[in-house]
Amino acid sequence: MEFSQYDVNALMQITTRPNLVFTEGHGMWLTDNNGKRYLDYLQGWAVNCLGHSPQCVVDAITSQAGKLLNPSPAFYNEPSIVLASLLTANSVFDRVFFANSGAEANEGAIKLARKWGKVNKNAAGENRYEIITFNHAFHGRTLATMSASGKTGWDTMFAPQVPGFLKAELNDIASVERLITDKTVAVMLEPVQGESGVIPATREFMQALRALTKQRNMLLIVDEVQAGMGRTGELFAYQLSNIEPDIMTLGKGIGGGVPLAALLAREEISVFEPGEQGGTYNGNPVMTAVGIAVLSELLKPGFLQSVKDKGAYMRAELLKLSEKHGLDGERGEGLLRALKLGKDIGPKIVEMARDMEPVGLLLNSPRPDLLRFMPSLTVSKEEIDQMVNMLSEVLTKLGH
Ligand SMILES: *Cc1c(COP(=O)(O)O)cnc(C)c1O
């Protein structure tokens, strides 16, 4: 069907979209309304960790949908029990609350930290509620998570902000220390900043944060909505720096394409009392059944090693590309990587790669001088080669 035959005007224009409607997806590939195929390095924004429509996710949805859709969160259901146990058995956390989006999981983390700061008051007997977050961080689009985020312009966009978030600089421990007051209850960060352009927190910084927060009786919260679930080659990104955080949030990859997120905490931090946290769809059996299918794939012997191997391969290929075209190198962890362009040609590359014939390439440019790659964790080396070759062709066309 031609694009002009769709009436898209009933949708709120919340972003500028190309005149394409995607109709099918399998693995690393998407097909549009004209039947054109695209190699997809967005994967729903690092969501489809097993690619588009993986069989295990399709099977989990269909079999659970025919059994039980929604008994309500007032009752236990099997998939949510099983997924929570799988997550706690494979992490340092003891308790899980399921949510529908990364932002909602982060809201839960903020609430849990504030509750913990009420139980663990300061020396003057006052509640602690301030949370130190980071410039350029991204934690979601609710009012509190926008306030926790450090994106330029977000402080005034829907003013007034939710108070209590102080912004430090990533990888600068002194900038964190300076912000600590007797009201500070936690530090919250992405182990790899995603939206700001794939900026990893260093191992030393994560370890220094853990030591500092422990020493000052504060919580360490890791937002692993983008970097968790095998994306970095470890199941969870905090494992890269050998630390044990107090709270972690998951989203994106855990649902393999469906809305599922999670808030995890260690036992002594899990201080919510009945009535303080909830949500109509939390622990929904269809979504948590998908979570079980996804996590079970990631836990198969050799899977995470294959992510590390392909991450290293992609890094090497991107470095070669960078050298060939005089770019500024690359960075990232595992299969969350960025190519530094050195010039503001990102949006132009995204457009030209998408419009290539006979097949297109879908890329993301979170900043004009950078491309971000979020392939499925099941991407093949051939699909990495194909992406690099197509990108090289675009760069040549652009005169680089
Ligand atoms: C995407 C993202 C979020 C928000 O998740 P939503 O599901 O869009 O609400 C939060 N934190 C990080 C690090 C993210 O990448």
UniProtKB/TrEMBL annotation:
This protein's assembly is summarised as: Homodimer.
The UniProt entry, under Pfam families, shows: Aminotran_3
Extra info from the record? May also have succinyldiaminopimelate aminotransferase activity, thus carrying out the corresponding step in lysine biosynthesis.
Q: What class of enzyme is it?
A: transferase
Pathway as given in its UniProt record: Amino-acid biosynthesis; L-arginine biosynthesis; N(2)-acetyl-L-ornithine from L-glutamate: step 4/4; Amine and polyamine biosynthesis; ectoine biosynthesis; L-ectoine from L-aspartate 4-semialdehyde: step 1/3
Where does it reside?
Answer: Cytoplasm
Q: How does the cofactor attach, per the note?
A: Binds 1 pyridoxal phosphate per subunit.
Name of this chain's protein: Acetylornithine aminotransferase
What this protein catalyses is: N(2)-acetyl-L-ornithine + 2-oxoglutarate = N-acetyl-L-glutamate 5-semialdehyde + L-glutamate
Binding annotation for pyridoxal 5'-phosphate? 102-103, 138, 223-226, 280
Which biological process terms from the Gene Ontology are attached to this UniProt entry?
Answer: L-arginine biosynthetic process
Q: Which cofactor does it need?
A: pyridoxal 5'-phosphate
Q: Which residues carry this modification: N6-(pyridoxal phosphate)lysine?
A: 252
According to the UniProt entry, its GO molecular function terms are:
diaminobutyrate-2-oxoglutarate transaminase activity; identical protein binding; N2-acetyl-L-ornithine:2-oxoglutarate 5-aminotransferase activity; pyridoxal phosphate binding
Entry EC number(s): 2.6.1.11
Task: Please tell me whether the keyword ATP-binding is annotated for this protein.
Answer: no
For the ligand (N(2)-acetyl-L-ornithine), the binding residues are 141
The UniProt entry, under InterPro entries, shows: AcOrn/SuccOrn_fam, Aminotrans_3, Aminotrans_3_PPA_site, Class-III_PLP-dep_AT, PyrdxlP-dep_Trfase, PyrdxlP-dep_Trfase_major, PyrdxlP-dep_Trfase_small
Please state the protein's primary subcellular location: cytoplasm
CDD domains per record: OAT_like
> Which family is annotated?
Belongs to the class-III pyridoxal-phosphate-dependent aminotransferase family. ArgD subfamily.
Q: Which GO terms describe its cellular component?
A: cytoplasm
Q: Which UniProt keywords apply?
A: Amino-acid biosynthesis, Aminotransferase, Arginine biosynthesis, Cytoplasm, Pyridoxal phosphate, Transferase
